[in-house]
Amino acid sequence: MGIGWVKLFIDESLPPDFASRLNELGEYDAIHPLHVGRRGEADHRVLVRCLSEDRVIVTQNARDFRKLVGRVARHPGLIILPGLGKATTWCILQTALIFLAQRGDPATLMVNHVLIGLADNALTFGRLNSLSPDAD
What we know:
The protein is of the alpha/beta class.
């Protein structure tokens, strides 16, 4: 499925090989802090970098990143994944990316939006202020 080029920041709350696996698919430019010398960087600095690089943030750190993106007028998007073990979380991330690809250009769709992966592989998608705070 050709979906175009999507730039993702895989937060260090997730395994580094998620970025490698996404890059192998050829449709993603995914980075992980471990691979780019940014391990331990504060979340607000991560957001600043993602804003400047136009990268969608993929994280399990829902509380902090929802607050941070809620303070900016425009952000490239936020994908929040549950902490359910590596294999399950990877499957939910794949489901999320397929969901976006089926609706158009994921990079465009994600602007100022949040996609939340849920434990039952269901997804919630919308603007940050329209989503329930309990959805993370």
